[in-house]
Amino acid sequence: GAVVSQHPSRVICKSGTSVKIECRSLDFQATTMFWYRQFPKKSLMLMATSNEGSKATYEQGVEKDKFLINHASLTLSTLTVTSAHPEDSSFYICSARGLANEQFFGPGTRLTVL
Amino acid sequence: EDKVVQSPLSLVVHEGDTVTLNCSYEVTNFRSLLWYKQEKKAPTFLFMLTSSGIEKKSGRLSSILDKKELFSILNITATQTGDSAIYLCAVEEPGTYKYIFGTGTRLKVLA
Questions:
Q1: Smallest CA–CA separation between B103 and chain A, in Å?
Q2: Which of A37, A80, B14, B45 is least surrounded by CB atoms within 10 angstroms?
Q3: Is residue B40's pLDDT more than 60?
Q4: Where is pLDDT greater, at B61 or A44?
Q5: Nearest CA to CA, how far is A33 from chain B (Å)?
């Protein structure tokens, strides 16, 4: 149990385009999901908390207009990187909060902006 | 300001060795501490610790929490090359569902 999927696993896009990443909890309902960003050889940096049916809460320094989050159902949250630039290239990982408040991670999405 | 600090930052051992990874934190009144193993992709869940002094065990891995001294350890006995990974600990931020992740310990097990 506690499987979280993420799609796509890898995306390459041109500068200025927008990219949508999906995070799904496959076998449980997740009222709360989290979006992280990870730089090479660094730990996970929390970007935002995604709550089903309400607006996401963003961490300090994360631009909410740049990183749009939508949590439309109990099993799906999406992160859209708008007007992507090369500095947005990174590994984006989502997690879903389990019943005991643990977090189960998706496999991650590697974004490369050319 | 680092609230969760892991040590050592990296470690190289030989197969069969026992390793102890440390996680110290400056967060009080939290509910849980998590340990994860991260290989090439996203972290996989290992343990959730909520109470002091109670060891959690899974095969060759075990972990314990000391809420008074504000640290946790992860032990791996009889290490194998497949244990090579980054081990992350995360402490729950009080009053939220968010976790603060440590810097990780990069473990390499040589054959």
A1: 5
A2: B14
A3: yes
A4: B61
A5: 10
Distance CA B75, CA A64 (A): 40
A74 touches chain B (CB under 8 A): no
With contacts defined as CB-CB under 8 Å, which chain A residues touch B102? 43
Q: Do A49 and B97 touch (CB under 8 A)?
A: yes
**Which chain B residues contact residue A6 at CB under 8 A?**
42
As a whole number, the mean pLDDT across chain B is: 92
